[in-house]
Design brief:
Elements lengths: L2 H46 L11 E2 L5 E5 L2 E2 L7 E5 L2 E3 L6 E5 L2 E3 L5 E5 L2 E3 L5 E5 L2 E3 L5 E3 L4 E3 L5 E3 L4 E3 L5 E3 L4 E3 L5 E5 L2 E3 L6 E5 L2 E3 L5 E3 L4 E3 L5 E4 L3 E3 L8 E2 L1
Parallel strand pairs: 1-3, 2-4, 3-5, 4-6, 5-7, 6-8, 7-9, 8-10, 9-11, 10-12, 11-13, 12-14, 13-15, 14-16, 15-17, 16-18, 17-19, 18-20, 19-21, 20-22, 21-23, 22-24, 23-25, 24-26
Length: about 260
């Protein structure tokens, strides 16, 4: 499978996951709306003659120990001790101890996260720091994310700066750039765009664009369009080099 196909498959999985997450978010909002409609009908006569107290927001807090500021935020009865400031944020299913600032963030069974932005979705994810919009985390913990549209699944302790990066079953990576794809790979340092690391490619240092590594470890790559398969401990400076089952003694330079 070539890089384009891998990228297409990854994007397909990413968009599918986002679709179901957005569908779940929409269902919770529908429940919230229905609840408000019932409450409005039941108490309509009383509210006709009552003005809302100055500064009071329409939040829906069913948990314990939460501090809810802003408007249209909600917690369910199992989500406690959260600090929420913004609009239309939702915390459900034992989401505890989170600090959320922004709009339309959705936390499900996620604890002790710091979220600042819009439309971020966290599911079974804890101890993350997120600044940006539309990031999705599933079963991922202790990540530091600054950017937009990043997708992490079963990935822990990563530092991600940039947009549209995708990490699956990958931990301890430092990623700066855009459209990088990392699958089952750990402890890599990546700076650049559209790099693809897969199949236990670990401890690589990649600086450039559109490099592909599969089952390759401990390589140092500076340049673009390099392709390594089952190759380890190489030092590569240049562009469009191809290494297959090559290790330690191989050093390619193409300017």
């Amino acid at each position: 499978m070539n890089k384009r196909e891998l990228k297409t498959l990854d994007l397909s999985n990413t968009y599918s996951g986002k679709y179901w997450q957005r569908l779940k978010m929409a269902s919770y909002r529908l429940i919230k709306f229905q609840g408000r409609a019932v409450a409005a009908a039941f108490f309509f006569a009383g509210f006709m003659f009552m003005g809302a107290p100055e500064g009071q927001a329409a939040n829906y807090d069913l948990g314990a120990g939460n501090v809810i500021l802003g408007d249209e935020n909600s917690t369910d009865a199992t989500s406690d001790n959260n600090l929420v400031d913004g609009y239309d944020n939702t915390l459900v299913n034992d989401s505890d101890g989170n600090s959320v600032s922004g709009s339309v963030n959705f936390l499900n069974n996620s604890d002790v996260n710091e979220v600042n932005g819009e439309e971020n979705t966290l599911t079974s994810s804890s101890s993350n720091q997120i600044t940006g919009n539309d990031n999705d985390l599933i079963s991922s913990s202790a990540n530091d994310i600054n950017g937009n549209d990043n997708n992490l699944v079963l990935s822990d302790s990563n530092d991600v700066v940039g947009d549209n990066n995708s990490l699956a079953s990958s931990s301890g990576n430092d990623v700066v750039g855009f459209d990088n794809v990392i699958s089952t790979s750990a402890s890599n340092n990546i700076s650049g765009d559209s790099n693809n690391l897969s199949s236990s490619s670990d401890a690589n240092n990649v600086n450039g664009f559109s490099n592909i590594l599969s089952s390759s470890d401990s390589n140092s790559i500076v340049g673009d369009g390099n392709n390594l398969s089952s190759s380890s401990v190489n030092d590569i400076v240049g562009h469009d080099n191809i290494l297959t089952s090559s290790s330690i003694i191989d050093s390619y330079i193409t300017i």
